[in-house]
Amino acid sequence: MLEDNLVIFKGNKDGIAVMLDDTADFDTLKGALRKKVAAAKNFFGGAKTNISFQGRVITTEEEAELLRIISRQANLEIAFVTGTKHAELASTAITPAMTFISNIDPDSGTDEGMTMFFSGTVRSGQSLRYDGSIVILGDVNSGAEVIATGNIIVLGAARGMLHAGCLGDMRAYTAAMCLAPVQLRIGDIITYISKDMTRKGKKRPGPSYAYVNDGQIYLSPM
């Protein structure tokens, strides 16, 4: 097959479908994607959009590599990554994955399973949901929500609604460089953070994490 046909972009009502050839090796496919994205920047428009990969089965690591190529080459902010491999999440009310995803298999501790890496700010009115743990390289603004079946880690300020362990996992935790959410949930336990924490002139909360112990949510500094 000609290299031009290894990757094909198709616009639809949900965003952009990236059609991938199922016979080429992955390195060749990545090269073809880089060339195609560079030549089709106007097609992407540098805006925020949804992305879906079709035509071949890819691993989460491969998906992450393809997403990096698209986001960097096209200066594109990816809102959602959709695909049939995430269809089983519909029964748990968790939407498809967003941005970069990778497997985590630590040498010690518990296996966190699937983890999504989201680069950017989750803005008011936006909802970020994932069946697994979420790491956000940015802020969660007031009015936004982040919901995960696993843990939630925010490498920035968390001021929206955070719900870790949303399917009842009481072992889940939430951590942030500035943990001051309007509402915090872990499993089926809900707590509200005092507005004094975010009042103008109040000292900014430092890095901290929240966890459940004896049926209550506790906040501790990191």
Detailed description of the structure:
The protein is mainly beta. The protein has 2 domains: 3-82, Transcription Regulator spoIIAA (2-Layer Sandwich), CATH 3.30.750; 89-221, Pectate Lyase C-like, CATH 2.160.20. Helix 1 runs parallel beside helix 3 (60-73). It contains 3 helices and 16 strands. The relative contact order is 0.08. The strands form 3 sheets. Strands 5-6-8-10-12-15-16 form a 7-stranded mixed β-sheet. A 5-stranded mixed β-sheet has the order 7-9-11-13-14, with no helix packed on it. It has a 4-stranded mixed β-sheet with strand order 1-2-3-4. The chain is 14% helix and 39% strand. Mean pLDDT is 75; it is low at 83-111.
SSE order and pairing:
Elements: E1 7-12, E2 15-20, H1 26-39, H2 41-44, E3 48-54, H3 60-73, E4 77-82, E5 100-104, E6 113-119, E7 127-130, E8 133-137, E9 145-148, E10 152-158, E11 161-164, E12 174-179, E13 183-186, E14 189-192, E15 208-213, E16 216-221
Helix pairs in contact: 1-3
